[in-house]
């Protein structure tokens, strides 16, 4: 009996323990234990977990420590806020490790929950004075654009016990560093790409574990990268300077309280490396015969090396990297070894990806292995190089001989699926080759799948397009001689990007360069960083939908992450850009200057077109005026968010005038637009450019247009993101689904049916007859059209956030089935935790599973088809009980509000 009582007691106690509030995922500035923050008031966030429903935080208490000593306590604060809470203690010190934890109270009377410890490590708050290191260059004659990669080294000793050691590193170029022959950090292509002449980022590394007692050595390689290497289709070099340079500082703290600093100076030695060249576009040439074994260790004899040259370059533009750096991710083995009709040996990795190939080879010294990277095979099965334009995209390895050799490139990246292998005699062993992906270390957050296999592949293509193009900068494409941060591509895709991955810090970093590159007149360049300056695309002018990224993306990041600071920091830039537009506009009509318009919309001559159809070219200035209204609306919201009352009123009035100007210029008295295109009607409807009494007829014209193209889309870069969402908003659900599920050209699924594994630049980058579009502008990894992913998450899976409860504090769950899709599921990891929606149609039965994080609430729209249907939750008839509030009905949906927890709704006859 006692034994039974004891078992029951244990079960009871374990149940209580399991139901208690748990505090997890402590983040500083959105990152787990970040090293190298130069933010004076870093913000703290945490996730709460509980098996109970309707759990909310009622209070918190944050404690921050240094060396185990409490330096700040928030004391107990009565608040639901659990994300982006700023540090408010004494000034933080540079290069210091801090720990923090939080205590939380909830509304369920749970015992106070205490988190484990998290940490963050500060960078240098005044690098211009705190970095005493000197810039050093190689001084080697062959160290030029397209030239060799030099390597640097220095020996030093530690005579005391090391408590901690922190390295601060940057370069005018790209660097890789080692201590005692071991790599510093796991990031690649550092310091990344910024507007180098205005903002050069340095990285902070905890290298305590790399030092040994006694003799040590530091070594590094320095390549051209984006700083001096070829950029753009005009083969421009030396964009930011003619000399690459390294800046290195190692701060050592000893256990006795003393300190020592190892810096880059004229005591460093230099030598050519085995890298005869290493370029972003062209790839790398590596001669393993030139390797100097142990060159970055303390025992190496560097007497034949030359002295580094000290350079008087400024340190006034140094900032810490507060974002996620480029790292390695997925790996792929070849799925096939092909012999092309031309007799070439080709590895097929099965996925269009961005990165490089690791290989293991053996042979005699001097043998040359050449790897050439392409995205596609042509209709005959041969490699398709033409769309690379001037980019060689080729890695060459010259063997040293003497056994198995392993090689991977260092300062380049390629966009590819297929790799031609030259220089290996006999059959190739595919196990000796591995494709490695490289992209910014943004954490995957979103998942989506449904009952349609083609749509699931589309989702995969969207995500792979993002992976391949989010390498420190949101590039347009990763393979040809371009790879630039086109603002239009980033703008249209930004909300989709925020579903798939956490891009909060990624865009915050890039937006600082948007502001830095802004022209004095407020215009925002078309590419950021602006390497096109001085060319046709590099004038002090702006284009709607492209330059608008300076306003649209900060707002989208606020909505997705609840990050008010990003709007605060960008607001001066946003306001300056809007002032530029207002000056460019005449009588509130922006119809001046160059405009991209609805870039790459449907043209009949693209693929011989749809029979009997005409091109879908929308008047550029009609598009421009719609986006003018859009950005003013967002400026109104931004000003309101920041409490700028006068500017809020000013922008509201401006938006009203812009819409009136649109109606006078582009709308006939009968409600017809001057451009009878899908994009024209989509944008007019999406941005409320038409008076209420003309919207129904505009919707009909839009649907009629789509029907006239046999349910094919004809939109370009600016119309496509809003096509399905505007149709859904105005009740044309089945039309939206028919467009999504169309699988012949032009459509989203046409590339999928053609075997695409990423999103294409054009609707017909590869034509129905398997030939290719104009190779001068045909990318097979271009994410812009993947912006439909936003609608797939919001309307198919049904996951969204209210703007007034940004960052998923107040969630919207509203799945809208259609198109014969019988099930769909989606989820997103928010700063509050996981939001999940999973629905299924089985005959007349509709079921909906939800997951709502602790400390949030959700308004749920449950699809109903009439008053005779029964709705249950957890098997019980739906009622305002157990954390559920029934709020009524709205246009075919039963509306309920729920707190945190898991829910299972069923609707049936």
UniProtKB/TrEMBL annotation:
Signal sequence interval, chain numbering: 1-19
UniProt xrefs under InterPro entries: 6-hairpin_glycosidase_sf, 6hp_glycosidase-like_sf, Alpha_rhamnosid, Bac_rhamnosid6H, Bac_rhamnosid_C, Bac_rhamnosid_N, Ig-like_fold, Rhamnosid_concanavalin
Record-annotated Alpha-L-rhamnosidase six-hairpin glycosidase domain positions: 444-796
Residue stretches making up the Bacterial alpha-L-rhamnosidase N-terminal domain: 160-329
GO biological process assignments: carbohydrate metabolic process
Protein name: alpha-L-rhamnosidase
Reactions catalysed, as given in the entry: Hydrolysis of terminal non-reducing alpha-L-rhamnose residues in alpha-L-rhamnosides
Organism, scientific name: Dyadobacter frigoris
Record-level Gene Ontology MF annotations: alpha-L-rhamnosidase activity
Domain Alpha-L-rhamnosidase concanavalin-like: start-end pairs: 339-438
SUPFAM superfamilies: Six-hairpin glycosidases (SSF48208)
Keyword Transport found: no
PANTHER family: ALPHA-RHAMNOSIDASE (EUROFUNG) (PTHR33307), ALPHA-RHAMNOSIDASE (EUROFUNG)-RELATED (PTHR33307:SF6)
Keywords: Hydrolase, Signal
EC number: 3.2.1.40
EC category name: hydrolase
Annotated ranges, domain Alpha-L-rhamnosidase C-terminal: 800-863
Keyword Signal assigned: yes
């Amino acid at each position: 009996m006692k034994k039974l009582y004891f078992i029951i007691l244990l079960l009871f106690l374990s149940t209580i323990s399991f139901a208690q509030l748990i505090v997890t995922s402590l983040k500083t500035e959105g990152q787990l234990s970040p090293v190298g923050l130069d933010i004076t008031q870093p913000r703290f966030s945490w996730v709460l977990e509980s098996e109970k429903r309707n759990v909310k935080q009622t209070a918190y208490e944050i404690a921050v420590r240094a060396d185990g000593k409490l330096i700040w306590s928030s004391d107990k604060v009565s608040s639901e806020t659990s994300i982006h809470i700023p540090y408010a203690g004494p000034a933080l010190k540079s290069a210091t490790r801090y720990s923090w934890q939080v205590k939380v109270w909830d509304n369920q009377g749970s015992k106070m929950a205490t988190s484990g410890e998290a940490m963050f490590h500060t960078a240098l708050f005044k690098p211009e004075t705190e970095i005493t290191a000197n810039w050093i260059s190689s001084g080697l004659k062959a160290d030029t654009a397209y030239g060799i990669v030099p390597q640097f080294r220095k020996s030093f000793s530690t005579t005391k016990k090391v408590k901690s050691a922190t390295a601060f590193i940057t370069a005018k170029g790209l660097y890789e560093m080692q201590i005692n022959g071991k790599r510093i950090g796991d990031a690649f292509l550092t310091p990344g790409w910024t507007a180098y002449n205005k903002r050069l980022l340095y990285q902070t590394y905890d290298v305590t574990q790399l030092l040994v007692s006694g003799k040590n050595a530091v070594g590094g390689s320095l390549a051209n990268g984006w700083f001096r290497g070829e950029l753009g289709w005009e083969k421009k070099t030396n964009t930011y300077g003619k000399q690459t340079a390294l800046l290195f500082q190692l701060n050592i703290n000893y256990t006795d309280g003393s300190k020592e600093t190892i810096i880059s100076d004229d005591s460093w030695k230099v030598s050519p490396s085995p890298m005869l060249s290493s370029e972003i576009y062209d790839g790398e040439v590596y001669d393993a015969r030139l390797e100097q074994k142990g060159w970055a260790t303390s025992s190496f004899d560097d007497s034949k090396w030359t002295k580094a040259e000290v350079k008087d370059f400024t340190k006034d533009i140094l900032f810490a990297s507060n974002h996620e750096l480029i790292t390695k991710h997925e790996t792929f083995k070849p799925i096939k070894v092909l012999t092309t009709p031309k007799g070439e040996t080709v590895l097929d990795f099965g996925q269009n990806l961005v990165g490089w190939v690791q290989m293991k080879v053996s042979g005699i010294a001097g043998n040359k292995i050449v790897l050439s990277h392409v995205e596609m095979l042509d209709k005959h099965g041969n490699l398709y190089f033409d769309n690379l334009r001037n980019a060689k995209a080729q890695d060459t390895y010259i063997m040293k001989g003497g056994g198995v050799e392993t090689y991977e490139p260092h300062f380049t990246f390629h966009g590819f699926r297929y790799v031609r292998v030259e220089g290996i005699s006999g059959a190739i062993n595919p196990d000796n080759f591995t494709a490695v992906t490289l992209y910014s270390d943004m954490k995957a957050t979103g998942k989506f799948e449904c009952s349609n296999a083609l749509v699931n592949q589309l989702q995969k293509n969207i995500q792979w397009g993002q992976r391949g193009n989010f390498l420190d900068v949101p590039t347009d494409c990763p393979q040809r001689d371009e790879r630039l941060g086109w603002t239009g591509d980033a703008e249209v895709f930004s909300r989709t990007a925020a579903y798939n991955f956490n891009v909060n810090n990624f865009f915050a970093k890039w937006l600082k360069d948007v502001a830095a590159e802004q022209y004095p007149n407020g215009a925002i360049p078309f590419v950021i960083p602006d390497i096109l300056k001085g060319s046709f695309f590099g004038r002090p002018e702006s284009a709607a939908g492209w330059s608008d990224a300076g306003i649209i993306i900060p707002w989208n990041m606020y909505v997705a992450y609840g990050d008010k600071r990003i709007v605060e920091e960008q607001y001066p830039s946003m306001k300056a850009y809007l002032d530029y537009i207002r000056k460019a506009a005449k009588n509130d009509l922006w119809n001046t200057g160059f405009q991209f318009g609805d870039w790459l919309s449907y043209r009949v001559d693209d693929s011989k077109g749809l029979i009997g159809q005409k091109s879908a070219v929308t008047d550029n200035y009609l598009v421009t005026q719609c986006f003018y209204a859009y950005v003013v609306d967002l400026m109104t919201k931004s000003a309101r968010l920041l409490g700028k009352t006068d500017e809020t009123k000013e922008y509201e009035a401006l938006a009203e005038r812009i819409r009136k100007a649109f109606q006078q210029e582009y709308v006939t008295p009968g409600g017809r637009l001057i451009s009878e295109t899908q994009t024209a009607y989509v944008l007019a409807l999406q941005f409320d450019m038409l008076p209420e009494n003309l919207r129904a007829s505009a919707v009909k014209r839009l649907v009629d247009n789509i029907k006239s193209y046999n349910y094919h889309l004809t939109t370009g870069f600016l119309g496509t993101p809003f096509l399905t969402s505007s149709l859904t908003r105005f009740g044309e659900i089945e039309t939206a689904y028919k467009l999504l599920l169309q699988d012949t050209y032009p459509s989203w699924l046409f590339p999928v049916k053609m075997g695409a594994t990423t999103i294409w630049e054009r609707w017909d980058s590869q034509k129905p007859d398997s030939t290719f579009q104009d190779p001068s502008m045909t990318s097979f990894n271009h994410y812009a059209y993947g912006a439909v992913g936003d609608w797939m998450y919001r309307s198919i899976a049904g996951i969204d956030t209210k703007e007034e409860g940004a960052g998923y504090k107040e969630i919207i769950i509203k799945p809208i089935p259609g198109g014969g899709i019988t099930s769909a599921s989606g989820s997103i990891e928010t700063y509050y935790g996981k939001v999940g929606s999973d629905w299924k149609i089985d005959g007349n039965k509709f079921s909906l599973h939800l997951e709502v994080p602790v400390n949030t609430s959700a308004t749920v729209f449950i699809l109903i088809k009439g008053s005779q249907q029964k709705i249950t939750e957890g098997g019980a008839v739906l009622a305002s009980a157990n954390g559920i509030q029934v709020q009524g009905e709205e246009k075919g949906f039963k509306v309920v509000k729920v707190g945190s927890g898991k829910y299972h709704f069923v609707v049936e006859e």
